[in-house]
Amino acid sequence: MIYITRRLEFCASHRLFNPSFSDEKNAATFGLCNNPNGHGHNYVLEVTVKGEVDPETGMVLDLKALKKLINEKIIDRVDHKNLNVDVDFLQGVIPTAENIAIKFWERIKPHIHNGTLCEIKLYESERNFVIYRGESIESIH
Amino acid sequence: MIYITRRLEFCASHRLFNPSFSDEKNAATFGLCNNPNGHGHNYVLEVTVKGEVDPETGMVLDLKALKKLINEKIIDRVDHKNLNVDVDFLQGVIPTAENIAIKFWERIKPHIHNGTLCEIKLYESERNFVIYRGESIESIH
Amino acid sequence: MIYITRRLEFCASHRLFNPSFSDEKNAATFGLCNNPNGHGHNYVLEVTVKGEVDPETGMVLDLKALKKLINEKIIDRVDHKNLNVDVDFLQGVIPTAENIAIKFWERIKPHIHNGTLCEIKLYESERNFVIYRGESIESIH
Amino acid sequence: MIYITRRLEFCASHRLFNPSFSDEKNAATFGLCNNPNGHGHNYVLEVTVKGEVDPETGMVLDLKALKKLINEKIIDRVDHKNLNVDVDFLQGVIPTAENIAIKFWERIKPHIHNGTLCEIKLYESERNFVIYRGESIESIH
Amino acid sequence: MIYITRRLEFCASHRLFNPSFSDEKNAATFGLCNNPNGHGHNYVLEVTVKGEVDPETGMVLDLKALKKLINEKIIDRVDHKNLNVDVDFLQGVIPTAENIAIKFWERIKPHIHNGTLCEIKLYESERNFVIYRGESIESIH
Amino acid sequence: MIYITRRLEFCASHRLFNPSFSDEKNAATFGLCNNPNGHGHNYVLEVTVKGEVDPETGMVLDLKALKKLINEKIIDRVDHKNLNVDVDFLQGVIPTAENIAIKFWERIKPHIHNGTLCEIKLYESERNFVIYRGESIESIH
Predict the structure, then answer these.
(1) I need a surface site. Which of D19, E99, F6, F97 has the fewest CB within 10 A?
(2) Residue among E133, C53, E62 nearest A100 (CA)
(3) Nearest to E5, CA basis, from A10, B105, B123, B42
(4) What domain count does chain B have?
(5) What's the whole-model pTM score?
């Protein structure tokens, strides 16, 4: 059992706000990230798949195919975009790193057949990052 | 003569376009960076000052004071902002890394009295960065 | 369930020695780190909290509040300090990365109420780092 | 229980191919990595050992001894080498990151007595890396 | 006058030796890098062009075009290659970082028309890198 | 003419103060760096030598010899040391990055015969670094 990770980057803008909050509550909750005209980041995405090593190839999976999948399903949709308005699969979602990571998981999970998707790590910056492993509370002791 | 550099970071969104261009020309000129709803970056800014070492302190200048100056004149104005609409000193300027670096130079040059500002280095990402040294064509052989 | 991490830095000096050891045993045990006048590092600290995403905010917790907590309880106490003599909560402890990480865990664990502290990662340098997850031997199979 | 990691680097060349495949299948399977004359990488290796902190030393183990072990058993054997032909313990193995990580695990596992080897992380580049934790399928739920 | 840099990466293998040297002299001169079966690196290439900012675009040049040029003239020719045998423009050259940088300069210099090529920086690793600025001894005071 | 750089690291502690200043003036001048018991850093040192490429070797100089020289003259003397008390060539000098860089220049300049020492770059952290090029005011226009 090996864990293999592919790292990719994209840059995007976003604004954090909840349309059902008052302006004051949005400002208090989201701070600088609530700036009405938005701001942005160079995001770093790490996708980790676990699986057995195929003895014929020495590989868990074809990394070229994994890269192609991530580019098609995620990077091409979010790179150089405004995450609040340009990305259909983020519509109706506050684009925090947490929510983006969960949505990325949902985007590619059904398409990974060699090995099992086990982790999405998303860096908003070197200082802030989140990890999603597909866990729900019930499945955690 | 020593060159001393302070590195700071900010995140911001921008859109590259020239209002006098047609949509087609804007798209052809600026590519992905022309996305109407913008995108963003974690910018890294390095400010370099050169000067003599003061024998009483062993320092060219007070780095705390330099950091305070850069924060007041630059970082607090651009961090978590939209560079096209939120920053008065960038109004009327296409917010490319080149133009931003030049404007940053102009913002702090008059306020550096211990030593001489000699370089602004601005990373839009690890892959793209610009350096401005206050040079005009005439002053370069 | 999401894991969210905040990264911070501090610089400090330390000396590794056990006052109950002979000088020879201290030198043999701690090597270069036993230098009587100490040495130092730029430490990097990553604090990871896990929790559910609040659907109203899209966040596990308020990162600004987490940063404030870590600064008050840890960074302000150790940054630009000598870990052997300046830090009350490290008194009587050999300031190895292992021990510092455990003490940091104890410092902030009681104060994290949104989500659960799950990991302290402490880099002494890029080449050496430790992780503490609050585990005792008994709780590990 | 603490996890302590030592990071080391080596540079090496390799070529990915399966001698039982046709040239066409090798090219299709391994892509650019199948180049007949090979290519190479600056590999980064992180070895993680977990254990209890010895109260007399504040350490899980002697990092100097761990570094010496990794250098003798691994780094000195692979650094500035061709992984296909120069490394006896990789003979008969397709030198993918997956296989190299497993072989590195086997090389040092028997020699770690203070604490337990728990992870080999091998970066082929910043963009591709694998983790091996000694797991076989049977031991994973 | 602005300096704009584009960073790209490639991985390759090489062996340092001078065919007119004896084996002993090759070993003494090139050390580990003389390993007969070669070794390799993840090289990082930074290409810097200087020029005036075009007031219509806010840019020195079209970075997309610069990236395309570097990929065509350099990266596609050396990535995942053996620098001793696979690269026509390096034939007859000992593939040290110094020589590679000079050859890269010669490859792209004639094709840069907006702005002036002013620096090739080539990292063999984080620890070793060279810079070439097109200077010959005569032109330096 | 090529510029070749070797990067090395060391960790050390220091305290900034001028013994002829009052405690108040020391505190005001050096801020956190004036902590009586010191603090420390993981310093990064980059030494750059410029020279012609020897056509017989493709190298400006023997990097192994340069590394050996820097280790003997600098790293072995400052690594895991207290820069205020353990380093003879820093006695009587306030150990700011500026002064350390100048002293490092003086330590190795006389010993570099292949090529010319042209730059010492010293990082106290990723955020603060200095460059010394052996320039005195008189030699700069």
Answers:
(1) D19
(2) C53
(3) B123
(4) 1
(5) 0.96
Nearest neighbour of F63 by CB, restricted to E18, E21, E128 = E128
Strand-pair partners of A43: A10
Task: Give whole-number Cα distances, D114 to C17, C136, D36, D54, F122, in Å.
Answer: 20, 16, 43, 10, 37
| Longest alpha-carbon distance in chain A | 60
- At C102, which CATH number? 3.30.479.10
Q: DSSP 3-state helix, strand, coil percentages of chain C (rounded to 5)?
A: 35, 30, 35
Return the percent helix, strand and coil in chain D, to nearest 5: 35, 30, 35
Which runs of consecutive H residues, i.e. helices, occur in D60-96?
63-70, 76-78
> Which chain A residue's Cα is nearest to B38?
A82
Is D98–A59 a contact, with Cβ atoms under 8 angstroms apart?
yes
Q: How many CB pairs under 8 A join A and C?
A: 60
Cα–Cα distance measured from residue E68 to residue E112, given in angstroms and rounded to the nearest whole number: 12
* Whether D62 and C101 lie within 8 Å, measured CB to CB: no
Task: Determine, for residues B5 and F129 on separate chains, whether the beta-carbon distance falls below 8 Å.
Answer: yes
**Residues F54-96: tens digit of each pLDDT:** 999 999 999 999 999 999 999 999 999 999 999 999 999 999 9
The residue range of the domain holding D122 is: 2-140
DSSP state of E52: P
**From CA F138, how far away is CA F135, in angstroms rounded?**
8
Q: How far is E24 from chain F (nearest CA, A)?
A: 14
Here the ipTM equals 0.94
Tell me which residues of chain A have a C-beta less than 8 Å from any C-beta of chain C.
16, 18, 29-31, 93-99, 101-102, 126-133, 135-137, 140
Q: How confident is the model at residue E136 (pLDDT cuts 50, 70, 90)?
A: confident
pLDDT tens per residue across span D75-92: 999 999 999 999 999 999
- pLDDT of F136 > 80? The answer is no
The pLDDT assigned to C141 comes to 47
The pLDDT confidence band at residue B123, using thresholds 50, 70 and 90, is very high
- Tell me if B44 sits within 8 A of B104, measured CB to CB: no
Reply yes or no on whether A118 is catalytic.
no
The label of the residue with tokens 């009295």 reads B113
Query: What is the distance between the alpha carbons of residues A91 and D135, in angstroms, rounded to a whole number?
Result: 40
The answer to whether E98 is a known catalytic residue is: no
Q: Which of E46, E106, E119, E124 is catalytic?
A: E124
Q: Is the pLDDT of residue B94 over 90?
A: yes
For D80-129, the pLDDT digits (tens) are: 999 999 999 999 999 999 999 999 999 999 999 989 999 999 999 999 99
Q: Which two tokens stand for residue F136?
A: 């005195």
Question: At residue C139, does pLDDT exceed 60?
Answer: no
Q: How many CB pairs under 8 A join B and E?
A: 60
Touch criterion met for F and C (3+ Cβ pairs within 8 Å): yes
- Mean pLDDT over residues B115-122, rounded? 97
